[in-house]
Design brief:
Radius of gyration: 24 Å
Strand content: 25-35%
Order of helices and strands: EEEEEEHHEHEHEEHEEEE
Largest sheet: 6 strands, antiparallel, barrel
CATH class of one domain: Mainly Beta
Oligomer: single chain
Shape: globular
Number of strands: 14
CATH superfamily of one domain: predicted glycosyltransferase like domains
Structural class: alpha+beta
Number of helices: 5
Length: 294
C-alpha cells in the first residue's frame, strides 16, 4: 500500500506530547462484550506514539478498554497494543494507548522516521481545554477563632478526600489487574489457535521468551555506528526451534547500521525449549536488542 503524503497534526495549544501523522490503513479493534472478545474492523486515520484516530464499524463507549492491531507500511510485524477510548462521535473515535511496550513504540518510530519528513507545517487539531485552577481564598475576618476552626475543617476534609482517592485508586488498580489477566488468557488462546490452524509456529510474547534464555551473547557495536553516534533499539522477528536454538531471524525495526550486529549476536543465543501440551514446540517471537553508547 502506498504511503500517503504525511503532514503532522498538532495545535500549539494542544497538550499532546507527540505529533500525529495522517495514515490510511485497516485495523482491527477487539473489545470484550459480556466476557467474549468481539473483533470490529476499522480504518486508522492518524497515528502517534500515544494514540490514534480511527473509523470503526462498531459501537464503542468513552472510557472503554480495547485492543488494537494494525500493519504499518515498511514494518514487518503488526502493531499490537491496548488502548482506551477517549472520545467517540458516530463511527469516529480517538484511542489512547495504555502501557505501550518499547517494542511497539519502536515500530511506530521506525515507520514515522522512514516515511515522514521533519515536521515543518502545523495543522489544525482538536484543542483540549485545560482545567481551570481554583484557589481557595480564606475570608478576611477579624475573628481569629473562626479562622482557626475553618482551617481545621478544611484540613479534615482534605484528609478524607485523600483517603477516599487512595481507596478508589487501589480498587481501580485491582480491577484493571483482573481484567488484564483475563484479557491475556483470551488473547493467547485465540492467537495460538489461529497460528495452529494456519500451520505457523506458535507465537509467544517476548517477555515469556526472555525468561527462557539460558545463554546470551552481547552484540558487537559496529565502528561505523559508534563514529556516527548511532544508537537505538533493533527489533528482530525470530523463530526458535524445538531444541531451543535460534532458527531464523529477520530485522523489522531499528537502525539498519546496527541490524546485522544484532542478528549475529542473537543467532548464538540458546533458549529452554518451549512446551505446549507437554511437548516441545517451535515458536515465533520478537527479540529487542538495545544499543547505547557509553
Amino acid at each position: 500500500m502506498a504511503a500517503p503524503t504525511l503532514a503532522p497534526i498538532l495545535d500549539s495549544a494542544s497538550r499532546r506530547r507527540f505529533l500525529r501523522y495522517p495514515i490510511k490503513v485497516s485495523l482491527e479493534v477487539i473489545a470484550l462484550q459480556s466476557g467474549i472478545p468481539n473483533t470490529m474492523p476499522g480504518r486508522c486515520t492518524d497515528l502517534s506514539e500515544t494514540g490514534l484516530g480511527a473509523i470503526v464499524a462498531g459501537e464503542l463507549l468513552p472510557g472503554q478498554a480495547v485492543a488494537i492491531e494494525l500493519r504499518l507500511p515498511n514494518v514487518g510485524l503488526p502493531v499490537q497494543a491496548r488502548a482506551q477510548v477517549r472520545y467517540q462521535d458516530r463511527l469516529r473515535c480517538g484511542l489512547q494507548f495504555v502501557g505501550l511496550s518499547l517494542e511497539q513504540r519502536e515500530k511506530i518510530r521506525y515507520w514515522s522516521a522512514a516515511i515522514a519528513p521533519i515536521p515543518s507545517q502545523v495543522g489544525p487539531s482538536k484543542v483540549e481545554t485545560s482545567p481551570v485552577s481554583l484557589r481557595v481564598v480564606a475570608p478576611l475576618s477579624n475573628n481569629v477563632a473562626g479562622q482557626e476552626r475553618l482551617k481545621r475543617r478544611i484540613g479534615v476534609n482534605r484528609r478524607r478526600f485523600y483517603a477516599l482517592a487512595a481507596l478508589l485508586a487501589m480498587l481501580a488498580g485491582f480491577g484493571w489487574w483482573r481484567w488484564q489477566n483475563a484479557w491475556n488468557e483470551l488473547e493467547m488462546d485465540s492467537t495460538a489457535a489461529r497460528d495452529v490452524q494456519n500451520g505457523l509456529p506458535l507465537r509467544v510474547s517476548p517477555d515469556t521468551m526472555d525468561r527462557q534464555i539460558v545463554y546470551k551473547v552481547d552484540p558487537v557495536y559496529p565502528d561505523a555506528a559508534r563514529q556516527a553516534g548511532t544508537q537505538g533499539l533493533v527489533v528482530l522477528d525470530a523463530v526458535i526451534a524445538q531444541d531451543g536454538t535460534v532458527r531464523r531471524l529477520h530485522p523489522v525495526a531499528g537502525p539498519r547500521v546496527l541490524a546485522q550486529s544484532a542478528v549475529d549476536a542473537v543467532r548464538s543465543w540458546k533458549y529452554t525449549p518451549y512446551r505446549s501440551g507437554g511437548q516441545a514446540v517451535e515458536v515465533a517471537t520478537t527479540v529487542s536488542v538495545d544499543f547505547r553508547l557509553r
